[in-house]
Amino acid sequence: MSLGQPAGTKLNMFGRIIHDAFGEFAYHVGSSLTAKKGEPWRDVDVRLILDDDEFDRMFPGIDDPGRVVLHYRHQALAVVWSEFGSNMTGLPIDFQIQQMTYANTNAECEGPRSPLGLMMYRAEQRRSLGGDPQ
Questions:
Q1: Residue 102 maps to a domain
Q2: How does pLDDT run across 35-90, given as a tens digit for each residue?
Q3: Which of 8, 18, 23, 69 has the most crowded Cβ, counting Cβ within 10 A?
Q4: Which domain CATH number covers 115?
């Protein structure tokens, strides 16, 4: 990750909140993840990838998961979570919710994915079991 600290920690905290809200981990993807130190990137892409059935339940009527721009609930959630993430982290967050099949088969979704909040979640699990949070 080329974001540095404390931005990376804040981004993972944001990811942990997404997990609490949706029950799934979101992923840091795109150029801000893959850029070498000093290379430019425009925004921080955060993707929540939902099982196809859950995506269809949340966003009925989307026939083409690659063209969700006219689904108002989908767009409202993307805007609200992007703004919340940007305010929380100080980073220009681009949050999107994607259907799993689309995310795993579409060329524009290729590239590494880094789960956000996973380490914090695991530390919380260890702590709740009486283990060392490190």
A1: yes
A2: 887 788 889 999 999 999 999 999 988 877 777 667 889 999 999 999 999 999 99
A3: 18
A4: 3.30.460
User: What CA–CA distance (Å, rounded) separates 84 from 63?
Assistant: 28
Do the beta carbons of residue 109 and residue 26 sit within 8 Å? no
Residue 134 maps to a domain: no
Tokens 């490190």 appear where? 134
Contact 116, 14 (CB under 8 A): yes
CA distance 132 to 47: 30
Can you give the pTM of this predicted structure? 0.83
Q: Facing residues of 28 across strands? A: 46, 114
How many domains is the chain partitioned into structurally? 1
Residues paired with 26 in a beta bridge: 48
17 Cβ neighbours under 8 A, 6+ residues apart? 88, 117
| Cα–Cα dist 103/120, whole Å | 25
Helices (H), 23-115: 31-34, 52-58, 72-89, 100-105
